[in-house]
Inverse folding.
């Protein structure tokens, strides 16, 4: 069992990591101020884990809302559904919202907690690897709009993050791999030592060896916490967490979010970012190969992406949230374990990378 603390002054909190934590009332009770709890979850996670969470909350007035599964529910309609259900109870301002599920549920429930009566306490209980190492930490909450992903939301920190690593045993292998893309990302952008550890222990993590999983998640959370502490609202260094995401989001948009999971698109995007870093003289061939090999061992796609033309990819990349004053800002690697944000990448090498990975045209 490990604890990672995130120091954000009065908004700081602990992230607790270990197997079986959902069954432990002590993980939740001290952080629930009032008598009411409102759990938001979905139809896949509820039959697996809602019962054990509710047992840990016995004696409190608990209500839960079970939503359909999928990214498509992260929208205005579901947001209104959560608020309607809370008002129907009715929940008072002392209610604690608990998000039980992956990043979709965490982002949606967090935004509802931020909005209900101008903000009520919130606990994250993430159940996918991606949500355990990324989305449950750092306070980004929100929903999608037809015109773009995560376009509506709030920075709203949870009171606590309870990561029950035993929940990973039911996660489909493809989702586990998608979460590994974000784990590997921390090594690439910030932590060469962790990258080396992953190279030696990746298979043990993928097999869900308890100690290795605990270490991989806690070191990922510590990396994220360190970055968020320096830049909670993403005015600078937090953008490093988007390594591979500008390419990845364009791939997801080009394929209508149907072909690749987010982590898979990010994996291809990180290989593209490494390729561009090499063209710009920042990385050598061996470093690029190490990036691709580690992602492949995690079951992630790294090969050239042929679903869209280079020109279309370039257009889609211009819609990235990091674009400022029309200028593309890309996260590139300086070395394995260090990244920076570059806003003056020449179109020549950028298009060469896009042409290497995409269709001609
Ligand atoms: P998800 O929430 O859709 O979960 C993936 C799938 O796994 C779903 O089908 C879900 O029902 C299922 N599932 C969840 N836990 C399970 C378990 N223990 N056993 C079996 N199945 C389980 O997807 P995700 O990858 O967790 O999160 C993606 C979302 O996170 C996106 O909406 C993305 O925008 C968001 N995100 C947010 C941040 C942030 O900082 N807030 C960061 C990264 C991603
Ligand atoms: N997942 C990116 C961030 O939290 O900033």
């Amino acid at each position: 069992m490990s604890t990672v603390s995130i120091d954000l002054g009065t908004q700081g909190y602990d992230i607790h990591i270990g197997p079986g934590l959902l069954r432990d009332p002590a993980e939740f009770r001290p952080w629930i101020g009032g008598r009411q709890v409102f759990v938001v979850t979905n139809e896949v996670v509820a039959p697996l884990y809602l019962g054990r969470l509710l047992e840990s909350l016995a004696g409190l007035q608990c209500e839960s809302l079970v939503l359909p599964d999928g990214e498509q529910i992260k929208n205005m309609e579901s947001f209104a559904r959560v608020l309607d259900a809370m008002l129907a109870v009715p929940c008072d301002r002392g209610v604690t919202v608990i998000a039980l599920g992956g990043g979709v549920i965490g982002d949606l429930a967090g935004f509802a907690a931020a909005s209900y009566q101008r903000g009520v306490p919130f606990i994250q209980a993430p159940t996918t690897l991606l949500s355990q190492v990324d989305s449950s930490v750092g306070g980004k909450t929100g929903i999608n709009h037809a015109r773009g992903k995560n376009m509506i939301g709030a920075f709203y920190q949870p009171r606590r993050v309870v990561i029950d690593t035993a929940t990973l045993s039911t996660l489909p292998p493809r989702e586990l791999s998608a979460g590994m893309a974000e784990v590997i990302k921390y090594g690439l952008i910030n932590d060469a030592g962790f990258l080396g550890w992953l190279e030696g222990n990746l298979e043990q993590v993928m097999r869900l060896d308890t100690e290795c999983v605990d270490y991989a998640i806690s070191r990922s959370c510590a990396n994220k916490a360190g970055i968020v502490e320096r830049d909670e609202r993403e005015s600078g260094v937090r953008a490093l967490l988007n390594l591979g995401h500008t390419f990845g989001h364009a791939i997801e948009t080009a394929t209508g979010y149907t072909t690749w999971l987010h982590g898979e698109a990010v994996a291809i995007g990180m290989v593209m970012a490494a390729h561009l870093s090499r063209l710009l003289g920042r990385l050598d061939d061996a470093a690029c190969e190490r990036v691709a090999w580690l992602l492949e061992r995690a079951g992630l796609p790294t090969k050239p992406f042929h679903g869209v033309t280079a020109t279309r990819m370039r257009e889609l990349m211009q819609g990235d949230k990091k674009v400022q004053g029309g200028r593309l800002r890309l996260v590139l690697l300086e070395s394995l374990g260090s990244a920076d944000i570059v806003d003056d990448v020449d179109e020549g090498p950028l298009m060469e990378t896009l042409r290497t990975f995409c269709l001609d045209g």
Q: What stands out?
A: Residues 325 and 343 are 11 Å apart (CA to CA).
